[in-house]
Predict the structure of shikimate kinase.
Amino acid sequence: HENLHNSVDDALLLKRKSEEVLFQLNGRCIYLVGMMGSGKSTVGKILAEVLGYSFFDSDKLVEQAVGMPSVAQIFKVHSEAFFRDNESSVLRDLSSMRRLVVATGGGAVIRPVNWKNMKKGLSVWLDVPLEALARRIAKVGTASRPLLDQPSGDPYTMAFSKLSMLAEQRGDAYANADVRVSLEEIASKLGHDDVSKLTPIDIALEIFVALQ
């Protein structure tokens, strides 16, 4: 009963916050940026639902445009550059629309042209500690993550070292976002010792607070 009560409270709070933010958004799109596995799609769907926006995952749109089942396959058959070109054209098309929440691919931030398009809306960086990302990715496997897929070795160690390298390459680029939402800071505010204890609703609430 207590859990149900909490989730009803959270849902009402989320709805109230979304109404406060809607006025300020004035129809502008929200772009979620961050490393792979940071929860952009999960959180993005919640944001879209309570705002009455449409949700899009830019990776999925590229897959549809190219006619391939996965990003991993596009990298394998074509190349990363081919994928990035298609990603840029998807983000350009989305930027002409309104009332969308868009979960972007982890590497979308490396091209200045993508920022030019995302700046037509509001961008939110989901900043997740690398250890938590590596744990999450090691648990589900790296087959769907072409930049992480390693033939052998301990999954956590491999994921962590590759993520560290990617974070170093992209760290400054993520900081271009209009708003940074740190999962570590939310966890400490809520008295959790680990970001994995946060729910997507906790993160969505914090995004609304940051956007006000």
